[in-house]
Write a structure and sequence with these properties.
- This protein is of the alpha/beta class.
- It contains six helices and four strands.
- Strands 2-1-3-4 form a four-stranded parallel beta sheet, sandwiched between helices.
């Protein structure tokens, strides 16, 4: 029984692990074109991540991204696909959402459909999708990742977008 109790504590603590993000090695991607899609659920947290993400993109020389708000996380893959199809000059799409686990299986359905939908869009449209749709057990977890500090997941998302844009520019597809 003690081993089970300790394992539960370790598992819980692992979920709260946070990473600090720095911008010391940020590449320059002048005129980088990105779009951001967010769910309207738990906007105060998504908006806080978007603010940090936009700061990183600006520091790297990217154009100001347009932010698109959709009804929920389940609609994010559809919006991302539409944006990729409508604007072939987009170099990355960054998505933010929070899915909070409840008492039903709805959480698992939404989480799984979002992830598989984003994967399809990324490969079918050949556009990087930086995924910060965060499934959590409670809002306590997301508060720690959306604060006004260096652990904000928006910083990670912005850095990932800049890094993949830079990589793709250095590794273009051959002309046909």
């Amino acid at each position: 029984m003690l081993a089970l109790h300790l394992a539960d504590k370790i598992s819980t603590n692992t979920h709260m692990a946070q990473v600090s993000y720095t911008l010391g090695d940020l590449s320059r991607v002048e005129k980088g074109r990105t779009a951001i899609v967010i769910s309207k659920w738990y906007r105060e947290y998504s908006d806080a991540m978007v603010v940090k993400c936009k700061e990183v993109l600006a520091a790297a020389g990217c154009d100001v991204p347009e932010v698109h708000v959709v009804p929920g996380s389940l609609e994010i893959p559809l919006a991302a696909r539409r944006l990729a199809q409508a604007d072939p000059l987009l170099e990355a799409i960054i998505v933010f959402g929070i899915i909070v686990k409840g008492d039903t299986y709805h959480f698992d359905m939404v989480k799984n459909l979002c992830m598989s939908g984003l994967e399809r869009v990324m490969f079918e449209c050949d556009i990087p999708i930086i995924n910060e749709i965060i499934p959590v057990d409670s809002l306590e977890y997301i508060k720690a990742r959306a604060g006004d500090n260096d652990k904000n997941k928006g910083i990670e998302a912005g850095k990932a977008a800049v890094e993949i844009i830079d990589w793709r520019r250095r590794n273009p597809l051959p002309a046909r």
